[in-house]
Design goal:
The complex is a heterodimer of chains A (110) and B (114). Chain A is built from no helices and eleven strands. In chain A, strands 2, 4, 5, 9, 10 and 11 form a six-stranded mixed beta sheet that branches. In chain B, strands 2, 4, 5, 6, 9, 10 and 11 form a seven-stranded mixed beta sheet that branches. A four-stranded antiparallel beta sheet of chain B has the order 1-3-8-7, with no helix packed on it. The termini of chain B are far apart. In chain B, strand 7 and strand 8 form a beta hairpin. Chain B has 114 residues and is mainly β. Chain B is globular, with a radius of gyration of 13 Å. Classes of the chains: A mainly beta (110), B mainly beta (114). At the A-B interface, strand 4, strand 5, strand 9 and strand 10 of A face strand 9 and strand 10 of B.
Chain lengths: 110, 114
């Protein structure tokens, strides 16, 4: 059974810092991995999707990497801004439908 | 309207009420999903419909009844709910059968059961 773990559970950083969010999964037989952002009480916004054959994806200040063999993904956020404050969720699609981690709650302090 | 929409956005109901949540996707996708998000728990998949056929029912109590009349619409019928069913209910859609299979989510319905 696929399990997804995200570390840390919460993170607070000053504005302008670069930061890394971690995601690990137990079954490396995945089809893709998605990173989402969720603002309080709202739905999920897809940030990046990495297919199993890819190593990384970039969108603006965001860069996501995937190491399928070790069951790990990282989301790198450059030059963080207060508007980046949200919960970031990692989810993997494999033999089972999308399995989510519990998320990392990020606060960027101005 | 673009993307995935959900109505209502907020719902308060008593344990004896019957209500329905509605989801509509405008992305031309062929798969739709219901998720439940409770406080401090990961998103839980409830139901999956692919090509309007239910392909996943994740041990959800029978007081939750899904309906998918066509590939663009998904409903979740609720009856005799319990207070512990209070949560954010999220709908998503994707294009299955190869390709990215990226899931797109609606804004959710915040359900409170009194």
């Amino acid at each position: 059974k696929q399990e997804v773990t995200q570390i840390p559970a919460a993170l607070s950083v000053p504005e302008g810092e670069n930061l890394v969010l971690n995601c690990s999964f137990t079954d490396s037989a995945i089809y893709n991995l998605q990173w989402f952002r969720q603002d309080p009480g709202k739905g999920l916004t897809s940030l990046l999707l990495i297919q199993s054959s890819q190593r990384e994806q970039t969108s603006g200040r965001l860069n996501a990497s995937l190491d399928k063999s070790s069951g790990r993904s990282t989301l790198y956020i450059a030059a963080s801004q207060p508007g980046d404050s949200a919960t970031y969720l990692c989810a993997v699609l494999g033999n089972t439908p999308l399995v989510f981690g519990k998320g990392t709650r990020l606060s960027v302090i101005a | 309207e673009t993307g995935v929409t959900q109505t209502p956005r907020h719902l308060v109901m008593g344990m004896t009420n019957k209500k329905s949540l509605k989801c509509e996707q405008h992305l031309g996708h062929n798969a739709m999903y219901w998720y439940k998000q409770s406080a401090k728990k990961p998103l839980e998949l409830m139901f999956v419909y692919s090509l309007e056929e239910r392909v996943e029912n994740n041990s959800v109590p029978s007081r939750f009844s899904p309906e998918c009349p066509n590939s663009s619409h998904l409903f979740l019928h609720l009856h005799t709910l319990q207070p512990e069913d209070s949560a954010l209910y999220l709908c998503a859609s994707s294009q299955d059968g190869g390709g990215l299979r990226e899931q797109f989510f609606g804004p959710g319905t915040r359900l409170t059961v009194l």
